[in-house]
Design brief:
It is a single chain. Helices cover about 35% and strands about 25% of the residues. It has about 90 residues and is of the alpha+beta class. It has one domain: Histidine-containing Protein, Chain: A (2-Layer Sandwich), CATH 3.30.1340. It has a 4-stranded antiparallel β-sheet, covered by helices on one side. Helix 1 packs antiparallel against helix 3. The longest helix has 13 residues. The N and C termini lie far apart (about 30 Å). The mean pLDDT is about 95. This is Phosphocarrier protein HPr. Its main location: cytoplasm. InterPro entries: HPr, HPr-like, HPr-like_sf, PTS_HPr_His_P_site.
């Protein structure tokens, strides 16, 4: 299992378009991927779950992946949350 804490730097947070890109990226990995905000855990491959997080810029999330590509998964998802979109 690989786990990483991320502070959202993207000014749009994890809403609409950034959430869609996050879910599409997560779905590209075989690992089971969860996003934690406080005590709650959300399926990173579910658009409804990711939107329900309601994460905004400056918030802290934890990405947890378990599987054969867990390292690549957390790195790719971290990058999405910490870099401004093109």
């Amino acid at each position: 299992m690989k786990q990483i804490e991320v502070i959202i730097k993207n000014k749009e947070g994890l809403h609409a378009r950034p959430a869609m890109k996050f879910v599409e990226t997560a779905a590209g990995f075989n690992s089971k991927i969860q996003v934690k905000k406080g005590p709650k855990s959300y399926n990173a491959k579910s658009m409804m779950a990711v939107l329900s997080i309601g994460a905004v810029q400056g918030e802290n999330l934890t990405i947890v992946a378990e599987g054969d590509d867990e390292e690549a998964a957390v790195q790719a998802l971290q990058k999405l949350l910490t870099e401004e979109p093109d």
